[in-house]
Amino acid sequence: MTHTDVLKAAGLTEADLTGGTLAVHSPIDGAEVARVNETDAADMMAIIAKAQEAFRAWRQVPAPRRGELVRLLGEELRKSKEELGAVVTLEAGKIVSEGLGEVQEMIDICDFAVGLSRQLYGLTIASERAGHRMMETWHPLGPCGVITAFNFPVAVWSWNTALALVCGNPVIWKPSEKTPLTAIATMKVMQRALDRFGSEAPVGLVQLVIGGVEIGEALVSSKDVPIISATGSTRMGSVVGPKVMARWGRPILELGGNNAMIVAPSADLDMAVRAIVFSAVGTAGQRCTSLRRVIAHNSIREELAAKLAKAYSSLPIGDPRDGKTLVGPLVDHAARDKMLAALEKARSEGATVHGGKTVSSGVPQGGAYVEPAIAEMPTQSEIVRTETFAPILYLLGYDTLDEAIALQNDVPQGLSSCIFTLNMREAETFLSHAGSDCGIANVNIGPSGAEIGGAFGGEKETGGGRESGSDAWRGYMRRQTNTINYSDRLPLAQGVKFDF
Ligand code: UN1
User: Fold this and answer.
1) In the annotation, is 288 catalytic?
2) Active site residue 438
3) Which residues are 420's β-sheet partners?
């Protein structure tokens, strides 16, 4: 199938693909695959106003009914899984299985949100006053701006959208400029669900805006978009977060990670190697959750390094559409330049680097293909503490668990982390208050590939936001505390007397 065939199979039309100003390139071969129309910044006010109007109608629809729309979305995604997965592969360069996995993640969050639509629970609370009752009610908050990154071009939208919709909020989606086509294809699927759902869903419930900083800025600075859920770099978040806060909006930020694995002396090394390779090399190291640092006990460090070198040498690098490939291309040549520069820096900081070379034979020409790299580091130097969005794995050693945990935590980011150990004391210490400082901490599995059922996000420079499962839905609603007096008196709390 040609690139155009893939796009057409996902429902994209000639009008979607041509005549616009935004050139879209496939990481597979660097080919220009479309010229997409960008949203005119001058239209943003009207788009936001439409979302506000949709909000006033959608919040009246009972939550379980809103869940029905999300159920239909899940059904349509099931039908379109292969076609949409193929667009993810084409536009983000993911291998086939990961492209499909991403759509599966969308389906999973839809299923979750459907159940949630009947469970937007509030508490009842004991009142100190006779004849009084207290409770909490959760109300829709308003339009939710969703800014997504190229590396999960559709799953992260679905985490936010499935939740926002059942919570009663419209969505305005600004995808990465690198991946507008998956967004357009996803909107076609969404439209099919909306058509089946019927007129109870207002016009403008889910809107797509395409473009650069100006478009994002319009969302970020509008008081009429109370929630901004943004995924991307720490630099982007450091601009978006304060701007949203300054106008009293609510940011949900999911930014950089610098995820580590501690490998203890008792670890099942073969399992650890499998976990390391998937999480460091999968998605060509371009997940927020990708493994970037292995902190191995010095007694097993050499053995582990040898096993890793062996595993890395056999990794099939190439066309992500080929079912045998495990390492596809980086998103673009700039990403490869950054990777090579990071490895240079690591060398200057004393690293011994294995791999990390540009691959140009046996791969489609025009794409940015690289050998995944392992950099054995003498210390956790500056480059190790920096997130480079590429398959670089820094290898460090440790002697005591305290030292390993301190190394694990001594980075600016706080997304995901894990320990491989069969020692229960070590595992529990790692998960305790004195252990990992990350939003995600795992035992005997890698840091990436989280299920949707848990809350997803992290601390420190990762931004503190939580999306996806557990009670992340609360981030999309406003909490109202209610006190109801069913007595014939008016007692004051805290024993205050105010008789007149
Ligand atoms: C991301 O990289 O922004 O846990 C999201 C994972 C995926 C989500 C990653 N479920 O790796």
Assistant:
1) yes
2) no
3) 263
d(CA 56, CA 53) in angstroms, rounded, equals 5
* Ligand 1 contact, 150 CB (< 6 A): no
From the list 177, 181, 182, the residue with the least C-alpha distance to 155 is 182
231 ligand 1 Cβ < 6 A:
yes
Residue 439 neighbours by CB under 8 Å, 6+ apart: 414, 415, 416, 455, 456, 457, 458, 459, 462, 466
Residue with tokens 């109801």: 484
What is the rounded distance in angstroms from the CA atom of residue 102 to the CA atom of residue 150? 12
Cα–Cα distance for residue pair 460/296, rounded to 1 Å: 24
308: CB partners within 8 A, 6+ apart: 273, 276, 277, 294, 374, 393, 395
Neighbours of 499 (CB within 10 A): 4
Measuring from atom 1 of ligand 1, which residue has the nearest CA?
288
pTM for the structure as a whole: 0.97
Q: From CA 91, how far away is CA 99, in angstroms rounded?
A: 10
Q: What's the sign of the alpha-carbon dihedral 426, 431, 432, 438? A: positive
> Encoding tokens for residue 356?
């990390």
**Hey, which of 98, 108, 152 would you mutate to test ligand 1's pocket, going by the most ligand atoms within 8 Å of its Cβ?**
152
Neighbour tally for 255: CB within 10 Å: 29
Reduced 3-state DSSP string for 48-104: HHHHHHHHHHHCCCCHHHHHHHHHHHHHHHHHCHHHHHHHHHHHHCCCHHHHHHHHH
Position in ligand 1 atom list of the atom nearest CA 416: 4
Q: Among residues 110, 167, 288, 438, which one is catalytic?
A: 288
Q: d(Cα 455, Cα 458) in Å, to the nearest integer?
A: 9
Who's near 351: CB < 8 A, 6+ residues apart? Answer: 343, 375, 376, 377, 378, 394
Reading the chain (500 residues) residue by residue, the pLDDT tens digits are 999 999 999 999 999 999 999 999 999 999 999 999 999 999 999 999 999 999 999 999 999 999 999 999 999 999 999 999 999 999 999 999 999 999 999 999 999 999 999 999 999 999 999 999 999 999 999 999 999 999 999 999 999 999 999 999 999 999 999 999 999 999 999 999 999 999 999 999 999 999 999 999 999 999 999 999 999 999 999 999 999 999 999 999 999 999 999 999 999 999 999 999 999 999 999 999 999 999 999 999 999 999 999 999 999 999 999 999 999 999 999 999 999 999 999 999 999 999 999 999 999 999 999 999 999 999 999 999 999 999 999 999 999 999 999 999 999 999 999 999 999 999 999 999 999 999 999 999 999 999 999 999 999 999 999 999 999 999 999 999 999 999 999 999 999 999 99
